[in-house]
């Protein structure tokens, strides 16, 4: 009958001091979203290479308009995971920005037939720069493409 004299326990209140909680949260199995772990050098080389290889196909398939998407994704996801992948993803974005500018300039130039030369030329030059950068990234060598301003650092 002593249970009738005890007050009801409010589940929203913390346990009284001196008593140990019955349940504890288990440790997190994954790192916190803001604290991404650094990558191994092999992983950095892989993602730096991916940042340059995928835009080649995307640029060719979209006439130069969608090549930046893969580079942007790699840059946003992996930029804080290592300096090597950050530099190569930024370089890939810079190449794509230059290609986009050249494509946009080439479109009105098609009215005077010059754009029919500059459009494929812009896509080919960007593809060559991406191939060189991908090979260098795969070899683990630092590389900055020539004649490409650094819009993204």
Task: Explain this structure.
Helices cover 55% and strands 0% of the residues. The chain has a domain at 40-139. Helix 1 (41-61) packs parallel to helix 3 (83-109). It has 4 helices and no strands. With 153 residues, it is mainly α.
Key terms:
153 residues; mainly alpha; 55% helix
Helix proportion: 40-55%
Q: State the total count of DSSP E strands.
A: 0
Oligomer: single chain
Structural class by secondary-structure content:
mainly alpha
Distance between the termini: 74 Å
Query: What is the number of helical segments per DSSP (H or I, 4+ residues)?
Result: 4
Largest sheet: none
Q: What is the CA-atom radius of gyration, in angstroms?
A: 27 Å
The fraction of residues in strands falls at under 5%
Low-confidence stretches: none
Q: Describe the global form.
A: globular
Series of H and E elements = HHHH
Could you tell me the mean pLDDT? 81
């Amino acid at each position: 009958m002593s249970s009738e004299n005890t007050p009801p326990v409010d589940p929203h209140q913390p346990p009284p001091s001196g008593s140990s909680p019955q349940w504890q949260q288990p440790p997190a199995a994954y790192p916190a979203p803001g604290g991404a772990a650094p990558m191994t050098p092999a992983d950095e080389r892989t993602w730096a290479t991916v940042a340059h290889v995928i835009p080649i196909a995307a640029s060719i398939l979209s006439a130069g308009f969608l090549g930046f998407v893969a580079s942007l994704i790699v840059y946003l996801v992996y930029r804080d995971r290592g300096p090597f992948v950050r530099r190569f993803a930024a370089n890939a974005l810079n190449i794509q920005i230059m290609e986009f500018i050249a494509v946009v300039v080439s479109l009105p130039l098609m009215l005077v037939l010059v754009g029919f030369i500059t459009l494929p030329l812009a896509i080919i030059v960007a593809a060559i720069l991406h191939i060189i950068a991908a090979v260098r990234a795969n070899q683990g060598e630092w590389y900055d493409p020539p004649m490409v301003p650094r819009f993204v650092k």
